[in-house]
Amino acid sequence: MPARTVLQSSDITRALTRISHEILESNRGGSDLVLLGIPTRGAVLAERIATLLDRIEPGAGTVGALDVTMYRDDLDRHPTRTPSPTRLPAGGIDGKTVVLVDDVLYSGRTIRAALDAIGDLGRPRAVRLAVLVDRGHRELPIRADFVGKNLPTAAVERIFVKLVETDGADAVTIEGDAEGESA
Amino acid sequence: MRHLLSTIGLERAQAIAILDLAEDMADVATRAVPKLPTLRGRTVANLFFEDSTRTRLSFEAAAKRLSADVITFSAKGSSVSKGESLKDTAQTIAAMGVDAVVLRHPASGAAQVLAESGWIDAAVVNAGDGTHQHPTQALLDAYTIRKTLHGAASRGRDLDGLRVTIVGDILHSRVARSNVWLLTALGAQVHLVGPRTLLPAGVESWPVTVGTDLDAAIDAHPDALMMLRVQQERMHAAFFPHEREYSTGWGLGDERFARLAADTMVMHPGPMNRGLEISASAADSPRSVVLDQVTNGVSIRMAVLYLVLSGADPREVAA
Fold first, then answer.
1. Shortest CA gap A23–chain B (Å)
2. Which of A111, B14, B207, B308 has the CA that lies 20 to 30 A from B259?
């Protein structure tokens, strides 16, 4: 089954702009805000949101990256994970509002691992979750606070997020879905 | 990576990937909670058929920082002194449900035998076998050289063009053998220096240059000078007439240390025979990275335990 594009570049930019406004609104401004992107594409999205936040409210928020590979509970099943460096902003995360950023929210296990990792790094005032795509099929009681697009999918379908920084182009595509079925 | 038995055959990309992963592990040590849950529920057995303090403690610290359970076995005071073989000991340990075995053994090739014998199903990490290999020592040495030279910008780099001089008892040294293959794979030029009686037969076929004159080697201004321990326990024949003669010819005494270029780092795998192969002032100087080597050893062993227990190819991990 050919891949179908569900978000184009302009849709992604619009979604991230909306998420940026929502983050500022829920945080009542940009102070004490830390964006932590989950590598690889979540880290790229966190950088983009940080740029947008800075445009809306100069100086709002700081950005870092949070690797969760070593916190996953599926070492047996998916042995080949790609650890990336964890980078925290200079001020750390203690007492801050941390917004975790990822590209796709699926089972929730990555976010569970991220929450464990955050617990080892400090004690934020609150942790929020921003994702570009929420495709459902949660295996843990986790939900996103900021969602670019809700995309109800079948478990057999696959979602691909491509970003200019990592893949040369912006697009969200879905593969393996029944033809004509609405997303 | 199923096992880590030797640095021979380790490709440059794999080696860099292991060093990079160790950088991530080193970052963990600086956190408020220097521990990862990665290997929770896994059991690592340290099988030490030969005396060792720092390597055993280093592997133990590494396994515990990754939340693995650790069983430590020392031959002294064990059934080995009652005549139990490696096979029986290994099978006993395996029957207790072990996922990885860290093996130190006086016989060259013991780690490979354990890995390929079918006696156990666990991953095997060679922590030193006879005069053969000590791969994690070589990895921590390469890591230390890279980190000392490049600091925060070391990630992803090789050792292209660097000159490392290894001095002393090359004949009995698994540290030298492991380093020769790893450092040259990473692009470094390795020069070996020692008394002719302590240079192994066939050294001409190694990818290194060889000499017997330490003063000339020091004047050549290497980036790193690695002093080897005089392994008195392996000196079953008269390889040199007297310790004083060894020290005069191949020891890093105060005079030689004073001539050493200011940016040459001094390395030693430990434990040091102070006054024999290295003087106290050289060992304790700011140019000595001996304690960095110990610290970095834990990060390297965390990376290696993660790789063998997850079965990941280090190149894919680095991708």
1. 28
2. B207
The answer to whether residue B7 sits within a structural domain is no
Edge-first strand order for the sheet with B163-167 is: B209-211, B189-193, B163-167, B224-227, B265-267
**Most B-contacting residue of A72, A75, A76, A84 (CB-CB within 10 A), to test interface:** A75
Q: CB of A132 within 8 A of CB of A148?
A: yes
Chain Cα centroid distance, residue B293: 9
CB contact under 8 A, A80 and B317: yes
Contact between A155 and A131 (Cβ < 8 Å): no
Catalytic residue among B42, B105, B134, B172: B134
* Closest chain B CA to residue A84: B24
CATH class for the domain made up of A10-73+86-153:
alpha beta
pLDDT of residue B243: 85
Contact B310 A116 (CB under 8 A): no
Question: Does B146 lie in the same domain as B91?
Answer: no
Q: Which residue has the tokens 């207790």?
A: B96
Whether B311 has its CB under 8 Å from any CB of chain A: the answer is yes
> Residue A183 above 50 pLDDT?
no
Structure-token pair, residue B135: 């791969």
Q: Which of A41-55, B8-22, B233-247 has the lowest mean pLDDT?
A: B233-247
**Looking at this protein, which amino acid is placed at residue B65?**
R
User: Across the interface, which of A72, A86, A122 has its CB nearest the CB of B27?
Assistant: A86
Is residue B84 very low, low, confident or very high in pLDDT (cuts 50, 70, 90)?
confident
Task: For residues B153 and B284, state if they share a domain.
Answer: yes
- The 3-state DSSP composition of chain A as helix, strand, coil percent (nearest 5) reads 30, 25, 45
Can you tell me the distance from the alpha carbon of B76 to that of B48, in angstroms, rounded to the nearest whole number?
9
Phi and psi angles of residue B169, each rounded to the nearest 5 degrees, phi first: -80, 80
**Per-residue pLDDT tens digits for B100-131:** 999 999 999 999 999 999 999 999 999 999 99
> Active-site residue B35, yes or no?
no
Full residue range of the structural domain in which residue B152 is found: 135-292
User: Is the ipTM beyond the 0.90 threshold?
Assistant: no
- Give the predicted TM-score (pTM) of the model: 0.88
Which positions 212-251 of B are in contact with A (Cβ < 8 Å)? none
| B6 falls within a domain | no
